[in-house]
Amino acid sequence: MKKTIQNITIELIKGDIASQKDMDAVINAANQALQPGGGVAGALHEKAGEKLEEACRPLAPIRPGEAVITKGFNLPNDYVIHVLGPVYGTNKPEALLLRKSYVNALNVAEQQGLKSIAFPALSTGAFNYPLEEAADVAMKAICDKLCALSNVKHIRFVLYDQISLDIHETALRRLTK
What we know:
- This protein is of the alpha/beta class.
- It has a single domain, classed as 3-Layer(aba) Sandwich (Leucine Aminopeptidase, subunit E, domain 1), CATH 3.40.220.10.
- It has helices at 39-48, 50-56, 94-112, 131-145, 162-175, and strands at residues 2-5, 8-14, 25-29, 67-71, 79-83, 116-119, 154-159.
- A seven-stranded mixed β-sheet has the order 1-2-7-6-3-5-4, with helices on both faces.
């Protein structure tokens, strides 16, 4: 699914976040220590190589909602924006922190002059954020931020499976009727 709003393309696909060759940056669903782990962080660190872990060390730890940037190293992207989403039920208020995660990632991309970025569904894996709620927060945060973007022109959500894709498409449709 693709929608253009205020001259910015929002695209939702099913795929592998570590294989987005046409994006300037990918968003890492990072842990506090910015270290390799499972899920998105594991996939990105594995493909980027050990230099990504080295570049992350001086930037850690980060707090929920915070975003930092490194080079992409062996990834097909110039940059990785590392974002710590909230752990559902632990980091409160969850919705505000998740919204800040998306907004701060966009702010970093904008400050870096990036034109295209790819997001995973932040906090929905090991951090247990309910998928429907997370999709609603994500789409609202992105749509609310569009008017403040001058560099970023393409925002892609790379979803792990068809259920996640369907839920995110529904959330975007609700906001853009």
